[in-house]
Amino acid sequence: MSLNYPKTPHLQKHALGGEGMEIFDYIVIGAGAAGSIIAARLAEDPSLSICVIEAGPSDVRPYVYLPAGFTKTLTQEAVTWQFKTEPTEHTGGRAISTTQGRVVGGSGSINGLIYNRGQPQDYDHWAQLGNRGWGYQDTLPYFKRSETRIGSADDAVRGIHGPVSVTDMDWTHPVSEAFIAAATKQGIPLNPDYNSGEQEGVGYFQRNIRNGLRVSTAAAFLKPALKRGNIKLVTNARVASIIIEGGVAQGVRYVRTRGGSMTTVHARREVVVCSGTINTARLLQVSGLGPGDHLSQLGIDVIRDLPGVGENLIDHYSARIVMRAKPHVVTLNELTRGPRLMLQFLRWLGRRPNVLALSPSQVFLFLKSDMSLDLPDLQGVFTPGSYKEGKHYILDSYPGVTAGAWQHRPLSKGYVRALSKDPYVDPMIQPNYLDHPIDQQTLVAGMQMVRGLLHASDLSNFLEEETIPGVSVKTDEDMLDFVMKNGSTAYHLVGTARMGRSDDRFAVVDDRLKLYGVDRLRIADASIMPMIPSANTYAATMMIGEKAADLIKGKVSAEV
């Protein structure tokens, strides 16, 4: 797969207006999971012109495409938004880093590569809230459309012709096998395909990796679409505001350097915002769309008083347990150093199973915190490697393994609020992690269940000591204190421009993703999710991109 992008054409026949003004049919803000798909699908019509504006640089860099580069890109300011949450008592007074992708491909260029749709009931719930066309049977064709499932799967529910590869784990470790064995002995079913519509169980994750390389929507959709000649990709450009005149979105203004001159681009048909849950809320607010009182305090003219913009922020809050492995056990900690790392690199070059082409998590668990529940309410993860306490992806100097958990559908909700009209000033981000007592109870239950598996007899030949949180943490009260002081984001932020009915005061877009009160403006990213899915959010965001493209074209349902 070639990493280089084709040269962007000038699009003169499409894009030039009077006095050098650029005019396109569509402007897509953000080249991430959904934006790359929308631009590519619209560009299938050669008569249309599309301008894609991305705040970050090109994704053509080794650490983006090499799956193991995840540990590097997550802390690189050149390709990320280094956001931090507001501290609360439920996070031990800590501000938590909640990094998002600022690069072509968006967070899909820096994420953990897991493909996880969630439960069918997640989307049925969206529909039950009044969002027509968003139930599981409505959204399933869009999930299928994006993917090529490589591995055993039911074609009725899995895609086989889409641009994004979904592959099985090709490198495993004996301790991962032992962890799965321990889970099955405790009655957790082995699940060969958690994306089939039946989620509960244990097994190996599916990933967006093929031939040892990350497969983002930018690589799979946008890059080939640029060859058609009707997309202009603008990188390193921060959109300062959406231009709205007479209740109609006319275009955008963007800037390339702080304090630099503004560039204006106009849209003949629509502006589509795909900036991600944090930046979409901020951009709408600084464009005069949001809670009127807050915008007035910032000196922003209120175009539409939409109290829901920035509200309903939801994220998965996770915590982890680390076990020291016995000296004879070789984990990822050792395989990624010295001569062993060179051997893994040679295996990667030869497209043989290796640790450089892994997702950070290997094994999944989908569990019920209470057996009286109808559906799993917990996700667990396991990997045969461990990171130093309090460090971002710096491996321990001793062999170790990690397991963790998070609650599927947290009830705690927060907000995002712009602090300035300056596009270089980050907004206030407050997810209110663990604010609801049920969230606390559920996460503690998940951590204790994961801990029990780590201490099962099946792993006794591999593991010798729990280092985090350690033997001093015993009771549920101890565990709650630990997760509050040591837990973190799963980077699954959603909901700040949520989809809902017109009589819902806090709904921001309708079920065709049109912003209430403004014509020719749509939102299409994770911010429109009315509730977080029981999953990592990348697959659902791709689905939103596919469905949004059809809605823009005037199609209310997928053609099958």
Instruction: Name the CATH superfamily classification of the domain at 12-61 and 217-310 and 495-552.
Output: FAD/NAD(P)-binding domain
Contiguous runs where pLDDT drops below 50 for at least 5 residues: none
Count of β-strands = 26
Tell me the overall shape: globular
Question: Class of the domain at 12-61 and 217-310 and 495-552 in CATH?
Answer: Alpha Beta
Strand content: 15-25%
- The computed structural class is alpha+beta
> Distance between the terminal alpha carbons, to the nearest Å?
29 Å
Individual helix count? 15
- Overall pLDDT confidence: 95
- Main sheet characteristics: 7 strands, mixed
**What's the architecture of the domain at 12-61 and 217-310 and 495-552, going by CATH?**
3-Layer(bba) Sandwich
Q: Please estimate the helix content.
A: 25-40%
Radius of gyration: 23 Å
Q: Could you name the CATH topology of the domain at 12-61 and 217-310 and 495-552?
A: FAD/NAD(P)-binding domain
